[in-house]
Amino acid sequence: MAYRIVVDSCCDLPEDYRRDEHFKVVPLTLIVDDTEIIDDETFDQLDFLRRVKESKKGIHSACPSPQRYMDEYETDEATDIYVITLSSKLSGSYNAAIVAKDMYEDEGGTNKVHVFDSRSAAAGEVLIAFMIERAINEGLKFEEVVEKVEDFRAKMGTYFVLETLEVLRKNGRLSNLKAALVSALNIKPVMAGDDGSIVKLGQTRGMDKALIQMVDHIKKDTANPETKTLVIAHCNAPARANKVKELVESIMPIKDVVIVDTAGVSSMYAYDGGIVVSV
Fold first, then answer.
1. DSSP 8-state symbol, 107
2. Residue 166: which pLDDT band, with cuts at 50, 70 and 90?
């Protein structure tokens, strides 16, 4: 069967996947003060980070319209459409994709469409995309692919450490006082995704210790690592991403490690120096 994998722009696909005709990216819009930035191939990470640093009013994102998703469903090039969005608890992207599916079917569309709520972001969406492609290459039918990937998503783990909590402060998710105290004490929270929400696993002083603590959690939570692919998404921090790769490979027999740089939405969440890991 011909297929298409549609992802929102929080999915930090490797470059070779972005060039693959089977993959389509639906961009979100980033708003920094009064400036709108489309999260597509024109996104300039360094310029965006500069704008965020200088921001006075805050940073937000706007999800794609249902019509933008529907444009990807209305194709003669594929009969099986798989859609991956960032967590429905973090964005309206998932709901927009679902509304588009309903619109498409109401108008008599015949392609099969399934929307996956990643319950994650960034590296987590990438892993789900990898799993969909793998299941398709195994020759599974549409319904079998959906079942296998839904099961995989339920067991997937996403972990992250941020260099700074300034963006969380600027978009109103953290008080000024708490952000200032964390910054002054050089405290780095170690966090994870829990069914699409964000939870704190622990905290420590200094980034190096936080990364070690994060990797320890990954080892504890990952069964049969020799069969797993691990994705590391970093925001302007390639050396740090490689350090995490080395830490992981030193304590567990992981099958494969893929490192990607964050695009717009992930750069907004992770900010400069942030690391997101999914396995």
1. T
2. low
What's the confidence (pLDDT) of residue 200? 84
Domain residues for 75? Answer: 3-28+63-154
How far is CA 268 from each of CA 39, 46, 61, 99, 229, rounded to the nearest angstrom?
11, 12, 9, 25, 25
Residues, the chain, total? 279
Look at residue 56 and tell me if it is in a domain.
no
| CA distances to 87, 210, 219, 241, 253 from 247, in Å | 28, 12, 10, 10, 11
Q: pLDDT value at position 177?
A: 36
β-pairing, 229-234 vs 197-205, is: unpaired
In a shared domain, residues 104 and 162: no
Same domain, 219 and 105: no
- For residues 75 and 178, state if they share a domain: no
**pLDDT tens, position by position, 84-137:** 999 999 899 999 999 999 999 999 999 999 999 999 999 999 999 999 999 999
Which tokens sit at 142? 């549409």
The strand pair at 112-117 and 80-85 is best described as parallel
Q: Could you give the count of Cα atoms lying within 13 Å of 130 in the half-sphere of its Cβ?
A: 22
Identity of the amino acid at 206: G
Say how many domains are in the chain: 2
**Calpha distance 243→239 (Å, rounded):** 6
Domain boundary among 125, 154, 183: 154
Instruction: Give the Cβ contact number of residue 164 at 10 Å.
Output: 16
Identify the domain boundary among 154, 169, 202: 154
Q: Which residues are within 8 A (CB) of 37 and not within 5 positions of it... i.e. 6 or more apart? A: 29, 30, 31, 43, 48, 51, 264
Q: Burial of 217 by CB count in 10 Å (0-12 exposed, 13-18 middle, 19+ buried)?
A: middle
Q: Which residue has the tokens 């105290």?
A: 181
Same domain as 253, residue 187: yes
- Whole-number pLDDT of residue 163: 87
